[in-house]
Specification:
The protein has helices at 7-11, 14-24, 26-43, 54-60, 62-79, 86-93, 99-128, 133-160, 164-192, 200-209, 219-241, 257-280, 290-305, 314-332, 381-396, 401-404, 438-449, 452-458, 488-504, 507-510, 557-565, 573-576, 598-607, 613-618, 630-642, 685-688; strands at residues 348-355, 367-370, 417-423, 428-433, 468-476, 484-486, 516-523, 526-529, 546-551, 581-587, 621-627, 657-664, 670-678. By secondary structure, the protein is α+β, with helices and mostly antiparallel strands. The protein is elongated, with a radius of gyration of 35 Å. It starts with 6 loop residues before the first helix and ends in a 5-residue tail after the last helix.
Length: 693
């Protein structure tokens, strides 16, 4: 008998590996059969061109990757299930093998069993010839990563825990809890911290942690394989020192019981928070974590000690309660200073903002990648000073948040604004706000929106990109006819005139709700990017490749002059000649009574008699004034085109009235109508008489 031992036999037991393969061989065969269905479904009736992109190919096998995760979890749990039972532990460790040999042998068995299904499917992928050669090996690599990570996590969980059910739950927690905690934390911060914005890095972390097969190669593949090896090494380190007599405990180490208890408390606390938020619907205090969270802590103590006695739970209850109260105080009273932090402009390298309603680009066709993008960064001291002043105004206005919900800000309101500071020390401060009082809006927002860089966001005609003007179309809602189009040099003249007006006018003079608008169509050098593919080349200069529509008002003096020079009258005399009369009526209770159609209101009242809509509609048109004087009709007609742009300011919006102008022809037929929020007292004196109360 030879006393020599091969190097492989020093670390592995061939007999044990053969035993594992003999006992578990049906499982990889079953998984292979399941994967065959995915293989048949992916290839059925599809041409090779269908799989030209890697993302499309990998998405067809998403079910296979899910099966890989499930199989890896199952196999890791199954091979080390003996750690869950006293008899199995005694039998396995009674063999003349070291723990290292036992561990490595089971790992080797698992690796062999796991690679059988993907190898068979990969060979079939190569033989069928439908898929690109490199995509077949991408499938093999992705499958191995998914199965290896789930297998290594399951093995680590089995060595840490002493209970099969807890081990499976621990494996799932490793996979799910990172995303759940990040989502819970961001939800809490969003509800509790004024101005909170989810950091961009969160999405990158989640994208990295939760593996996407089409984004796995090349370097990420090595990282994920290394992560599997780390879990296996950690599992072996735990296995070496694991007390075998604790095989029926929830955790194999008594010192880890508090971790188990507080982990259960955290999970049940999150459930408690969302439950009571949904039930009560008034606020989002973290104290909502206490009811079910404490139940979870008490239950975890009982399970870990195998008793129904409350003895020994007091310390855990106290620590959990104090932790929740402390976190609640941090959020409620802004102990960290998150809500009130505004950086000093000397510490800011640059800042970027997003404002609702800004950015007027419109794209036709596929996704477009531009050769050059406009620079919207704020870098000068004046720009940063106006931004920090506006930022401070938002913070100071938090107390008035409830008062101004509902967009009571006049004509220039923006629904939200996000600001991001890039600090000179490499840090980033990002905040988002949604409401601002009219007083502060006029004092801080309007000067900020008048900055050139901010105006270029709202009006991309003046941004820094090179544009080839393709055409210009003038629309007027007062005309029931085709729009007027200008090309070539004429379109360039309108473009230059619009740019001159936009650069010269402050923000509050640019806005218009008039009927006259100009749509500029132009081309910016770019490349087409089809979905899931690389850019394919320079885009053709198609009409409407990029377009911006701007409503003008009487402050656009250069534009109006350019239109007149091109033979287009902003007054549209031909359309005016068709008008014979004007009816003015005021929607006094518009906010309270939504339905404008009397017939619909009556039918609504039949269905819901508790809401007296018909009676309300009787007074909805509080004023119904007929204007027959030709000069007055012309004045209102021209105001509807370009005149009501600055009739209402934010500071006196509460005095505004909602007025509709309805123009009719000689046969009393409706030609067009327009509704405005305006202050009649600001109209010319000769027109104010029509609004006398």
């Amino acid at each position: 008998m030879s006393l020599k031992t091969s190097s492989s036999e020093r670390f592995l037991s061939r007999a044990l590996i053969k035993s594992d393969l003999r006992n578990h061989w049906p499982w990889p065969i079953a998984v292979t059969v399941i994967l065959l269905f995915n293989f048949i479904g992916a290839t059925d009736g599809r041409s090779p061109e269908h799989f030209i992109t890697a993302p499309r190919f990998m998405n067809m096998f998403a079910f296979s990757f899910f099966a890989a995760c499930v199989f890896g979890l199952f196999l890791g749990t199954k091979l080390f299930a003996y750690l869950d039972k006293v008899n199995s532990v005694s039998c396995m460790h009674g063999l003349p093998f070291s723990r290292r040999k036992l561990y490595l042998s089971h790992i080797t068995s698992g690796a062999i069993l796991m690679v059988i299904p993907p190898v068979i499917i990969t060979l079939l992928l190569l033989v069928c010839g439908v898929f690109p050669f490199e995509h077949c090996f991408m499938f093999l690599g992705a499958y191995i990563v998914y199965s290896a990570i789930s297998f290594s996590v399951a093995v680590f969980a089995m060595t840490v825990c002493g209970n099969l059910v807890v081990s499976v739950l621990f494996s799932l927690a490793i996979a799910i809890l990172p995303a759940a905690l990040m989502w819970f934390f961001t939800f809490i911060c969003d509800r509790s911290l004024y101005g909170y914005v989810v950091p961009d890095i969160y999405e990158e972390i989640l994208y990295f942690l939760y593996i996407f097969p089409d984004a796995m190669f090349p370097w990420k593949f090595a990282v994920y394989v290394a992560a599997s090896v780390v879990f296996l090494i950690a599992g072996y380190a735990v296995y070496r020192i694991r007390p075998l007599e604790n095989c029926e405990e929830v955790v194999a180490f008594k010192k880890m019981r508090p971790v188990f208890i507080y982990a259960v408390g955290l999970v049940t606390g999150m459930i408690s928070y969302f439950f009571f938020c949904g039930m009560l619907g008034n606020g989002s205090s973290m104290l909502y974590m206490l009811p079910l969270g404490l139940v979870g802590v008490i239950g975890a103590v009982m399970i870990s000690r195998k008793t129904v006695s409350m003895r020994g739970t007091g310390v855990y209850i106290a620590i959990y309660t104090v932790a929740v109260i402390f976190l609640t105080a941090c959020m409620q009273f802004d102990i960290t200073g998150y809500e009130t932090r505004v950086p000093d402009i000397d510490s800011v390298e640059y800042a970027e903002v997003e404002i609702s309603g800004s950015g007027g680009y419109y794209y036709h066709g596929n996704e477009i990648v531009y050769d050059s993008l406009p620079d919207y960064r704020l870098t000068t001291p004046d720009e940063l000073e106006k931004l920090t002043q506006l930022h401070t105004a938002y913070i100071e206005d938090e107390a008035n948040l409830e008062r101004y919900i509902g967009a009571k800000y006049g004509l220039y309101t923006r629904d939200w604004m996000t600001v991001s500071y890039k600090l000179k020390n490499g840090g980033v401060i990002k905040r988002r706000y949604e409401t601002l009082s009219p007083e502060r809006f006029e004092q801080y927002m309007l000067p900020f929106m008048s900055l050139d860089v901010i105006k270029s966001m709202q009006y991309p005609l003046i941004d820094s990109t090179d544009k080839e003007i393709l055409g210009a179309v003038v629309f007027d809602d007062r005309i029931n006819s085709d729009a007027s189009r200008f090309d070539g040099a004429d379109a360039r003249k309108l473009y230059n005139a619009l740019c001159a007006d936009i650069r010269a006018l402050p923000a509050d003079k640019l806005y218009s709700r008039g009927t006259l608008s100009i749509e500029l169509q132009y081309f910016i050098p770019c490349v087409i990017k089809l979905s899931g593919m690389r850019p394919t080349g320079i885009q053709q200069k198609l009409a409407y490749a990029t377009e911006v529509s701007i409503s003008i008002n009487r402050n656009y003096v250069h534009t109006i002059a350019a239109l007149e020079a091109l033979g287009y009258s902003s007054t549209n005399e031909d359309a005016f000649e068709k008008i014979d009369s004007l009816v003015i009526y005021e929607q006094a209770d518009y906010d309270k009574y939504y339905y404008e159609d009397i017939a619909y209101a009556q039918s609504y009242e039949v269905l819901y008699p508790e809401y007296p809509t018909t009676e309300a509609k009787a007074v909805l048109r509080k004023y119904d004034t007929l204007v027959s004087d030709r000069d007055d009709i012309r004045a209102f007609y021209e105001l509807c085109g370009t005149g009501f742009c600055d009739n209402v300011a934010t500071k006196d919006f509460d005095f505004a009235r909602e007025v509709t102008f309805e123009f009719r022809d000689k046969n009393n037929n409706h030609l067009f109508s327009r509704t405005y929020v305006l202050i009649p007292e600001k109209l010319p004196l000769e027109l104010q008489k029509y609004f006398a109360k």
